[in-house]
Amino acid sequence: MIDALILTILMTSVPLILAATGELVVERSGVLNLGLEGMMLMGAVSAFALTYASGSLIVGLLAGIVAGCLTAAIFGFFVLGLATNQVATGLALTIFGTGLSGLIGSDFVGKAIKGLPTLFPESFSNIPLIGVFFALDAIAYLSILIVFLVWIILFKSKYGLILRASGISHNSAHSLGYKVLNVRWCAVLFGGMMAGLAGAYLPLMLTPHWSEGMTSGRGWIALALVVFASWMPSRIIYGAILFGAITIMQLAGQARGWTIPPQFLSSLPYVATIIVLVLISSRGSAKYLAPSDLTRPFIASK
Amino acid sequence: MFYLTPRKEIPFSFRIAIPAISIVLTIVFGFLIFSILGYDPGKALYHFFLSPLSRVDKIADLFVKACPLMIIGTGLVLCFRANIWNIGAEGQLIMGAVFAGGLALSFPNNQSILLLPFMAILGFLGGALWALIPAILKIKLRTNEILVTLMLTYVASLFIDWLVRGPWRSPTSFGFPLTEYYPEAGLISKIYFPGIGNISQLHWGVAVAIFVCIFCWFTMEKTIFGFQFKLIGDSPNALKFSGFNESNTTLVLFVISGGLAGLAGMIEVSANIGQLQPNISFGYGFTAIIVAFLARLNPVAVIISGLLIALIEVGGDSAQIALAIPKVVTGVFKGILLFLLLAGETLTKYEINLSHNQKSDLND
Amino acid sequence: MKRKSLLLESRNITKSFGSFVANDDINFSIFKGEIHGLLGENGAGKSTFVKMVYGLLQPSMGDFYWNGKKITIQGPQEARDIGIGMVFQHFTLFPTLTVIENIQLALNENFNLQELRETIIKKSAEFGITVDPDIYIRDLSVGEQQRVEILRCLLQNPKLLIMDEPTSVLTPQESEQLFRVLKKLSKAGCSILFISHKLKEVKELTQRSTIIRRGRVIDTVASSSVSTEQLAKMMVGSEPHNVKSKIVVNSDDCLVRISGLNRSVDNPFATPLEDISLDVKAGQIVGVAGIAGNGQSELMEVLTGEWRSTETIDAFEVFGTDIRNYSPHKRRQLGIGFLPEERHGHSAVTDMKLTENTLLTHHNNPAIQKNSIVQNETLEKLTDEIVHKYDVRTPFHNPLASALSGGNLQKFVIGREIIKKPRVFFVAQPTWGVDIGATKFIRNALIELANDGCGIIVISQDLEELFELADNICVLFRGKLTESKPLEELNAEKIGMMMGGEDLLSRSQGE
Predict the structure, then answer these.
(1) Residue C230 and residue C259 share a domain
(2) Do both C33 and C126 map to the same domain?
(3) How many CB atoms lie within 10 A of CB B354?
């Protein structure tokens, strides 16, 4: 019972980890993409549709990644190419992605696919105490690997240094000869791929069917997670597990017949997000952790 | 990719042309999308954009649909001008409806003419109080209002869900999540035109909406308050230098935009529904964001842009009924329209060059 | 001097932005090991030229030659590859990164971190400019930040080092130290292109100077063969006008009295203020000298009322009224005018029209605002009056503030305050980034204001300006203000010492 609970918590946190890690890279480069929800939904519907059509989960996952990336490219075109307001463009992307995914997915409502298998043989999961950590699918392990790689690249390589520098002062980075817009393009597309993968995880693993707006606010929670993690990759993992646990607590509570109205439990993740945001912002140092050129458009000049 | 050079003066023609071109292009995209999806694009576009304009009563319905969009949108215009990103109008709308509904349901037999004004006041208060949470967090702790307002929207919709399924559920609703009907005095009546009678569902709330838009425009353009709102958006330092208080201005803007969303919620329920239920809004709070941008952040242009978005919404319904096109396509339209308007905004501020010969440098 | 070979040469370099020609047919050359001055007013086109040398801009016409060979410099990386380094006027540093990370970003090659750290320490010792590689830039003073900028150029053993207005952020003593480093470099064979509008230092440091005016080369001269007056004339194009004479104050009417002013800060980028005292008499101009970043903006916020405290300030009286808790609004009503340093987004809003910029500080005038409603006609009239009276050149009627040049915008905002005839006026960097014509105009306006009996505090980095304007000068250093002394008792060297903290040190040692 406890094992099952832990397993669900871990699985719930996987899409949050993926989406938030992508967004972290985007924000480190100085861009705020509020369209996470839209990109995740596009990833989810594409992954479901192609898995359903091809029968191959790999094809589905790739479709999710590509769809997320393409959706992010729309965002990049406006925000980087035309220097539009990042907040408004991100909102537009969410509205657009929600609508388009619903339109594409309207034929798939009510259909089912077989989800991702666990990576290790089932017998592993029977190991006492730690067995639950072997009961996950490949994407879950991959998400941890990605966080680690992002950390290495951001903080141990010159590429990461350039990316962080572009987020701190795009004018300085430009004066030193770095192509700020190219750096940001890479970040935005990477963020899209991660969001697409996160979206794909939902219908392929968490709930093996498609429904309209099935991300139900996960994109927004992932955005909050980036702030929670104060733009440090490793902290995303703790944060995501914490949020996963709060989400699952509500389900567990319902199952055990707690007398608290289910709506109150359902609102916990949202309330928790607000509380976390408040805690982060009341810590005075928060403003020095944030990339200082975040949301400021860079105008190309040559 | 592009080189942007700032314009010294914005040509007046652009102010009209950009929304117009955006709408035309959205229709072109609509044509393409319908063709790709295998619908007859001509028919689909007819149902979307013309059928809702074909009869007087259908046009009246557009006004009814646009009513909450106008009231919320004009409040959001003030906020967005001030660079305050209240995107939780949906939640504020719900709380406004809950507050007003609470009053109406507490006096089930009240026939006083004062009930409706008091409900309006409470509706405004409900929305304003819900918006005060992000406002105070932003002012005191610099907490990002985008995420807080959004999270509070989820909380508000769960809150009303709990109310109408729990303590406020009518014993005569056969288990449906519905409250009692409001007393007659708590409902907004339809507009009676002498000699014609009522036109479809056109109600007095629409008149209020138009008045609110004009009032907000006057505040924005002609008063010192409007100047403060623009100033806080363009440059908070200049606001301080000018001697105004940044925190107060921010607070006022949250109260106005939240309050107006609450008022819209009260009107929506009192005019169209008559009781509380889990879903009292169809994403008006989010749609109003597009309305605000389509109006190019002009409070009075919100009247027109609200009607236009209402057209897409009503058109979406009519296309769904006539051709079984999924309703979500309206979201695609709204998204595209918003993208195009934002691109248009760039076009008014900058000259865009594709070639490498026209080099520009803004850092010099 | 033995014949030297050319390192860099530009032939017919022209750069235009739309219809505006920033550089017109520039012919220029620099020898190996030469220190060459590039002189010109703000906006003359010096920065545009060196940005082309560093590859940040591409010329519209003309060519560069490097060691006699024609080259095109595509970008800063390529410039660094061939041996060009540049120290920018507005630093290209990243405050929330460490020194070593900042240096890494300016190197084309990838370094092993440990090796790089050792190289930094070695190089900084060699040139006498020590910096700790692991400290964050935001924790460094402006002078130290410049050392990082220079150091990261030196690490690449440049053949040509471009320095864009390097001394504007340094005390005279720090400048001298910099000159020693530059001379040492030049001896080692590195050419230096030294950009400045300060004639004396160009004459002192450089072998030859090229003077640019309105995008054209006026002349290239041997620096020792011309006088500063001749240089100034070439730079400005006509004899600089003289500033009006200031009436010597004989009043005991103390308008402003500040004592025991303290301010703590919660932001590591800001400077706390410590026990500041200052008096201003009617008709007196008190100059506050000091290098930027020593508490100027913090002090200005206290003067304007954007930051207020009754607890940490013992006294702040104007006309005998305690104004410690007065908002900027109330201070204006009392007859105080003020103007902060930053034009863009502080004393003016660039995205707003001039009328709205007038409203910014005139909204408490009942003729402008009645019952919260803005009286647009009166506002427009007043704006036109300011534009006319203070010689503000606008491209068309009532443009956005962003359409005005720096000098015209500054004339506008100063005029906007002076037209109210304030009896006390606080102003920071009144002529920063402003052309010589507007500078004279503004200084004359300030002197006229003082001659009419207004008490003025001028916070400025520009010593020349303070010598022209002030009756008394004090120095702000690390948040502390020295006692103000009459101009007669001071000279540039003494103030320079005070700007470096000498006076404060000796005083505290004496106590």
Answers:
(1) no
(2) yes
(3) 8
Interchain pair C95, A302: CB under 8 A? no
Please check whether residue B2 is in contact with residue B335, taking contact to mean a CB–CB distance below 8 angstroms: no
Same domain, B34 and B137: no
C325 part of a folded domain = yes
| B185 and B294 assigned to the same domain | yes
For residue A173, give both structure tokens: 């980075």
- Digits of tens for pLDDT over chain C (511 positions)? 445 689 999 999 999 877 778 899 999 999 999 999 998 877 788 888 999 999 999 999 999 999 999 999 999 999 999 999 999 877 889 988 999 999 999 888 877 888 899 888 888 888 777 788 889 888 887 778 888 888 888 888 899 999 988 887 777 777 888 898 899 999 999 999 999 877 788 888 999 999 998 889 999 999 889 888 788 778 777 655 566 677 777 777 889 999 999 998 876 667 899 999 999 999 999 999 887 778 898 999 999 998 998 999 999 999 999 999 999 989 999 999 999 988 888 999 988 999 999 999 999 888 998 888 999 999 999 999 999 999 898 888 898 888 888 888 999 999 999 999 999 999 999 988 777 778 888 999 999 999 999 999 999 988 888 888 999 999 998 889 998 888 888 877 777 777 766 654 444 443 3
Q: Domain count of chain B?
A: 2
What separation in angstroms does the CA of C262 have from each of C274, C276, C310, C339, C432? 5, 7, 10, 21, 27
Residues B25 and B97 in one domain: no
Contact A263 B150 (CB under 8 A): no
Contact B345 A85 (CB under 8 A): yes
| C243 lies in some domain | no
Range of the domain at C452: 254-510
In chain C, residues with a C-beta closer than 8 Å to the C-beta of B245 are: 327
- AA letter at C157: N
- pTM for this entry: 0.85
Cα gap B160→B182, rounded to integer Å: 16
Residues C192, C84 share a domain: yes
Domain carrying residue B103? 56-324
Tell me, yes or no, whether B49 lies in a domain.
Answer: no
List the C160-164 sheet strands across, edge first: C84-87, C160-164, C191-196, C35-39, C208-213, C216-222
- B48 found inside a domain: no
Q: Do B334 and B317 fall into the same domain? A: no
Contacting subunits of C (3+ beta carbon pairs below 8 A) = A, B
Q: What is the CATH number of the domain that holds C388?
A: 3.40.50.300
Interface test with B, best of C331, C336, C343, C374 (most B CBs within 10 A): C374
A–B: how many Cβ contacts below 8 A? Answer: 155
Given a contact cutoff of 8 angstroms between Cβ atoms, the answer to whether C73 and C181 are in contact is no
Task: Say yes or no: B289 and B349 in one domain.
Answer: no
Please indicate whether, in this complex, the C-beta atoms of A100 and B335 are within 8 angstroms of each other. yes
Q: Are residues C228 and C297 in the same domain?
A: no
The reply to whether C219 and C292 lie within a common domain is no
CB contact (8 A) between residue B350 and residue A83: yes
Half-sphere exposure of A69 (CA within 13 A, CB side): 12
| C300 and C389 inside one domain | yes
Contacting residues for C212 by C-beta, under 8 A, at least 6 apart: C26, C38, C39, C40, C44, C45, C46, C49, C218
Select from B37, B289, B350 the Cβ nearest to the Cβ of A91.
Answer: B289
> ipTM > 0.90?
no
Measured between beta carbons, the chain A residues lying within 8 angstroms of B161 are: 263
Say yes or no for a CB contact (<8 Å) between B243 and C395. Answer: no
Instruction: Give CB contacts under 8 A, 24+ apart, made by A51-57.
Output: A51/A113, A51/A203, A51/A204, A52/A108, A52/A111, A52/A113, A57/A115, A57/A116, A57/A204
Is residue B162 one of the residues assigned to a domain? yes
Residue B177 lies in a domain: yes
CATH code that applies to domain A2-289? 1.10.3470
- Whether B223 and B333 map to the same domain: the answer is no
Together in a domain, B295 and B180: yes
